[in-house]
Write a structure and sequence with these properties.
- By secondary structure, this protein is α/β, with parallel strands linked by helices.
- It folds into two domains: 39 residues, no CATH class; 264 residues, Rossmann fold (3-Layer(aba) Sandwich).
- It has eleven helices and eleven strands.
- The strands form two sheets. Strands 1, 2, 5, 6, 7, 8, 9, 10 and 11 form a nine-stranded mixed sheet that branches.
- Helix 3 crosses helix 11 and helix 5 packs parallel to helix 6.
- The structure holds adenosine-5'-diphosphate.
Length: 309
């Protein structure tokens, strides 16, 4: 677009002026703003699952809090438009959004993790979102470009199960998603579906950081020992078959359900538990792999002399 013309007209809502910009100019301004916002976030990555109920949001929340406890600046973007659970899980369900000249401000949770979700915009928490793809795309565009995330080490994007509109829009809008984590349970059906998420990432050239197996094994609430209640290891086998790193296994702990219902992330309350230990291990392995991916990206950009800013 002709940015000179647009600036001299001083006319687009995106540049906070009186509006006479053309649609193309607005689009170009939006894009510029989105790139500027995302350039302040070091690592942007998606959490995906093939099926609902496998603990994808729980993994996103607890990984975010683990990283925050380890000293990183972390944001969670709840891109699950039809089932936005992150605010409830993080105890900020009742909060409402405010904005300033920088954009909409994410909600800060007790752990220091900042959150954005459509749940903050709903009048009634039981309201259903009945939207087609284009509306979802424009909401995600706002979440990525018009929310003032500030400088972050990690932006974790919690997507709905499957490989639908939200995942596609997020990948297209961010352009360079730094990586994806696939959450699965050990059961065969969930595994089959998670293979589709792996294929999705490969098609969109999103680096697969790894697979997390959730609910493999059970932590006895009485003796704190792990029992293999259901079969375990399916996630690891699927990861091997699909040639994706395996990040680790999170056991079943009934306290996880209580914590998420109470709006207190499990690891905030039970930092010494087996589950929290699993999250720390996964976070460590994941950060290592993520750094490797970033090095590859830097080498690639250097090789082809591509400037990111
Ligand atoms: P998804 O995002 O995949 O739909 P959720 O994260 O909402 O799944 O989890 C579904 C339910 O399972 C929630 O009640 C959550 O507390 C519970 N849950 C998740 N992981 C575990 C676990 N490791 N142990 C016990 N309950 C879990």
């Amino acid at each position: 677009m002709d940015s000179e013309k647009c600036d001299s007209n001083s006319s687009c809502p995106t540049c906070n002026q009186v509006g006479t910009c053309s649609e193309e100019e607005k689009e170009a301004h939006d894009l510029k703003r989105l790139e500027a916002t995302m350039s302040l976030v070091k690592h942007k990555f998606m959490v995906l699952s093939g099926k609902g109920g496998v603990g994808k949001s729980s993994v996103a929340v607890n990984l975010a809090v683990t990283l925050a406890k380890e000293g990183f600046a972390v944001g969670v973007m709840d891109a699950d438009i039809h089932g936005p659970n992150i605010p409830k899980m993080m105890g900020v369900e009742e909060k409402r959004l405010v904005g300033n000249q920088d954009g909409l401000l994410p909600i800060r949770t007790e752990s220091g993790v900042i959150v954005m979700s459509i749940a903050f915009l709903l009048r009634n928490k039981d309201d259903a979102i009945i939207w087609r793809g284009p509306l979802k795309h424009s909401l995600i565009k706002q979440f990525v470009g018009e929310v003032f995330w500030g400088s972050l080490d990690y932006l974790i994007i919690d997507l709905p199960p499957g490989t639908g509109d939200e995942a596609l829009s997020t990948a297209h809008l961010i352009k360079k998603v730094d990586g994806a984590i696939i959450v699965t349970t050990p059961q065969e059906v969930a595994l089959l579906d998670s293979r589709k998420s792996i294929t999705f990432c490969r098609e969109l050239k999103i680096p697969l950081i790894g697979v997390v197996e959730n609910m493999g094994g059970f932590v006895c609430p009485h003796c704190n020992k792990e029992i293999n209640l259901f079969k375990i290891g399916g996630g690891e086998r699927a990861a091997q078959e699909m040639k994706v790193p395996f990040l680790g296994r999170i056991p079943i702990d009934p306290e996880m359900v209580v914590s998420s219902d109470d709006g207190v992330p499990f690891v905030s309350k039970h930092w010494d538990s087996k589950v929290a230990e699993s999250f720390r291990q996964i976070s460590g392995k994941w950060r290592q792999l993520m750094e490797k991916e970033m090095d590859k990206k830097e080498l690639y950009l250097e090789k082809f002399k591509i400037k990111t800013r």
